[in-house]
């Protein structure tokens, strides 16, 4: 108890130091007065008594200090003294403080910004209840040569799974959809979903206002209800609570709003579904799926997405094993759906269970790791620069430290003082770095590729702040340890000898040189990585897409008023005619699946004269006759479609691409060749033309076999317009033309094909831009560090240079001496960096396109760039060394 009272008393004294000092002064004065009075009573004069009392009392200041040590927490007071002294010395040395703080701030800012991104994308939980238990259910089929994650169980299979599977607490189904929403006389297109009654409960997501769907909402008689997103609630209704129970018009039908979801809930996002509708970035509205009895029992391929919530204690592997068993039994119990059978599909649906996080985050996890590794190297380079600055500063302060040691400062106290100063630099670097991180995060959305989940949610939360502070202090501590350890090893006599100080400087110089070599090696790794990504990006951008990038495209979706095929035909014929009548328009055509929209249609075919042991697979597209002209897709052989081809019934004309012709007509003329989807019914299509290959799915994948049918019959279609006018003018004319045909039909996703290419390369551009920026920052920091070391070396060797020049050395020789020292460090760093690059670039293999991971051009370019930049950085110190006056240099010693 007494110990605690003593601690409390010391803390009180520390907090109220002024009052304690006043009490101490009064107490000392009282003791001296009593002693003086005693000596006067013994017969001494006042002056003699005063002197005698002081001799008897002893050193006043020593007594005061002993009392201070007794009443206070000594280590806290000493720390405060170190902080005050450190702040004072840093303030008096702006030439050291500013570069050190800014260097550290660059490294900390880059790390903080990227960690904010990683935190939002990888670490933060998805905005659903227990997201680690949420899984997708897929049904791969070996007959389909497509990724396993494309197809989910049919509705009939899904509801059988729901009844029989014991691995799941709940299961749900939904279909993505786009809706035309009427608002204030205009029509806009928004992303939505048709969901079953268990959709929100499976996700464990509650509405912000109102309710979600009940079981009766999914009955066909009660389907006109809707739940809207928070953003749609704000944009359409001004966030007014009375939006509940109001009507919203979707595709010409009125729906009653029964709920509003919270801001973070817009599932599914574009990044949530690997093969979802690429035009839907986030979901703004949900309506009931409301399947009829026939649809609920359908066993054919659908557009539905199936997901479930795992029961506690059940692993994904166990759930998949159970699903596989059920699907195997269903494969035996049911025959293939007639439509699937006509297409050549057999009833052999498998089972694949994938976690929500694996599907949405898995594809970007390698990118996040790459960015973290890059900024980690940047922070290490910053640490090396700060360490170099601290080493140079410690060498310059050798005499000062020697004097302090002579006056009684302990070795531990001096080490602590040096570490305190480096920690203060860390605090300053952290503060400035956080500001830089905020600025970087504001710029990040401009680089958003659109397929990185929750990138717009990257922010500086508590976790990020703690990492930033911890990283800054750890970096500054590591940087400060080097000069501190060197100082602790020196004896007092060495501190006070000028030659010993120079020897210490030489030791520091060797350590500084090693740091420069290491920094250069890390810069080589970053520059090589950035160079490979730049070359890959250029290669992707240079790919022959097979179409013109100047064509303006837009999407049209006909609502329920256009329910008959003849209405579709009439609408699109009218639209194409009016578009082609516009001034400057050269051609207009539509297609059901536009290139680079992550959507495709697969056809199973038989080719007459080809060995059709298995059902052959090809991409199929419906186009209007002038589509090829609008997209400027060259004709290789035969002819384009005519209007008569779109209405042909027997021997319908088709156009194929070169890949199709090379595969199925390798040694014969494809023109006139016959193709069918069902040889039993003998409905043959005749090849009338061959066009060049078009990269429909991805710029980085080889073109697949493609077959085009002429048709005006489409509910949804993308329209392409080739014109000599600017895209903005064409887009405006498109909207005016569409309104003249039907004001309730909106033109959405109005983009040029060049924009589509830009969107397709957005993630590659994102990663290339960031890595290039980090490599640039690293290069600048390394060059600044090299230049600083050369300046320090010149200052340290001023007398040596003076002697050399006094003995006849030419100024050119002195300059070459400094440049040679710099070039040795750079060359060693480049060599070490190339060895590291040989290993590190293996991690980039999945990011490269059209370039090898050990590309000679990149390696040579990076090496030459670093050597040249290193010599430029050393040139100014070298010229300064060459301009030293020998007499002045010898006089200063």
Automatic annotation (TrEMBL):
Subcellular locations according to the entry: Cell membrane
Main location: membrane
Keyword Cell inner membrane: no
UniProt-recorded Gene Ontology molecular function terms: transmembrane transporter activity
Domain annotation ABC3 transporter permease C-terminal: ranges: 374-491, 773-886
Lipid bilayer topology: Multi-pass membrane protein
Protein known as: Permease
Family: Belongs to the ABC-4 integral membrane protein family.
Transmembrane segments: 96-118, 370-391, 423-444, 464-485, 514-534, 770-794, 814-840, 860-878
Source organism superkingdom: Bacteria
GO cellular component: plasma membrane
Alphabetic keyword roster: Cell membrane, Membrane, Transmembrane, Transmembrane helix
MacB-like periplasmic core domain segment(s): 100-324, 542-695
Record-linked InterPro entries: ABC3_permease_C, ADOP, MacB_PCD, Macrolide_Exporter_MacB, Perm_prefix_1
Keyword presence, Methyltransferase: no
Organism from which the protein derives: Acidisarcina polymorpha
